[in-house]
Amino acid sequence: MPLFWKHYQSEATQFINELKAKKPTLEAEQRAGRNLLWDREQDRDAQADFKAARVPQGAYVYFGRPKNSTR
User: Fold this and answer.
1) What is the signed CA dihedral for 23, 27, 33, 35, rounded to 10 degrees?
2) If DSSP codes are grouped into helix, strand and coil, which group holds residue 44?
3) What Pfam families does the database record attribute to this sequence (predicted)?
4) What's the CA angle centered on 66, arms 60 and 68, to 5 degrees?
5) Cβ atoms 31, 39 nearer than 8 A
6) How far apart are CA 33 and CA 41, in angstroms?
7) Nearest Cα to 34, choosing from 22, 43, 26?
8) pTM over 0.70
9) Per-residue confidence band for 67, with pLDDT thresholds at 50, 70 and 90
């Protein structure tokens, strides 16, 4: 490697590194927030009910059905 080689860090990476240095609990707080919304146990019975209750999509979704349609 040349003597003038310097490891490049973008401004965004520098900002994130500074933020983590200022607030060491940041990653734990982010994980806790993620757990609130995304990391949950799935209710398989409810998922099966949702799937069974699904209505098939019509052929022309951008046009309404005629008023005298029997469907």
Assistant:
1) -160
2) helix
3) DUF3460
4) 145
5) no
6) 16
7) 26
8) no
9) confident
Quick one: the chain helix, strand, coil %, rounded to 5?
A: 45, 0, 55
Give the pLDDT score at 16: 95
Backbone angles phi, psi at 54, to 5 degrees: -70, 135
Closest Cα partner for 9 from 1, 20, 22, 17?
A: 17
Polymer length in residues for the chain: 71
Tens-digit pLDDT profile for residues 16-52: 999 999 999 999 999 999 888 888 888 999 999 999 9
With a CB cutoff of 8 Å and minimum separation 6, the contacts of 58 are 65
Question: What are the strands, taking DSSP E only, across the chain?
Answer: none
Query: Which tokens belong to 17?
Result: 């590194």
